Amino acid sequence: MDARARRSRDKLSAAVLELAERDGIEAVSMVSIAQAAGVNRSTVYEHAASPLELLRMVLRDELDAIRDRHLTPGAHPDTRTAVRHTTLDVLRHADAHAAIYSRALGSAESTALHGMLSAHFRQSVLTLFQSGAITPPDIPGLDTCFRDVAAARFVADGTVGAIDAWLATPAPRDLAAFAALYVVLLPTWWPLSATQVLEQIAADGQ
């Protein structure tokens, strides 16, 4: 993406997030995005075919940046640290966009955003499996490829459901309390410690 396209994408990203938070993405049009971003409508269509597609793209870009920052080999000294930082940043991302996620996850747009979140989380889990950073328990007679896919789907879809429930609670939401619950809901082989998560939240100041 060249510099001009990058500037347009940044303007469109800010516009669609603001409009979706204020009005709900179902009420947002390509015209309103163009007006809020200060660009031509044709520019909006160069980036996405619909407001929902643009919103999904913007949110996915933020999630991808979190994954790249923490799950890139060498980003952290060990898997536990990488998973801990990834988890907390994802929860902060969801809370920061709670008005969008809580509205969309309970509406006709829920399929698109639920699918985007689940696919992102599933790919993150599979990346950890494929790198050997995490290995689910072996089950005699069960194909390991199927095991990995099923485990990734279980963790990913469960995470989306838990976040959906959390965002339905009133603000301000307690990150530490939800993170502690989330850890105990995960499989015992998942490398996340409630104690370390709470210590990290305290160290981060939230």
Automatic annotation (TrEMBL):
Gene3D superfamilies: Tetracycline Repressor, domain 2. One of its GO terms (molecular function) is DNA-binding transcription factor activity. Coiled coil: none annotated. InterPro entries: Homeodomain-like_sf, HTH-type_TetR-like_transc_reg, HTH_TetR. SUPFAM superfamilies: Homeodomain-like (SSF46689). The keyword Ligase does not apply. Residues 6-66 form the HTH tetR-type domain. Residues 29-48 bind DNA. Keywords: DNA-binding, Transcription, Transcription regulation. Pfam families: TetR_N. The keyword Oxidoreductase does not apply. PANTHER family: HTH-TYPE TRANSCRIPTIONAL REGULATOR RUTR, MYCOFACTOCIN BIOSYNTHESIS TRANSCRIPTIONAL REGULATOR MFTR-RELATED. This is TetR/AcrR family transcriptional regulator. It comes from Labedella endophytica.
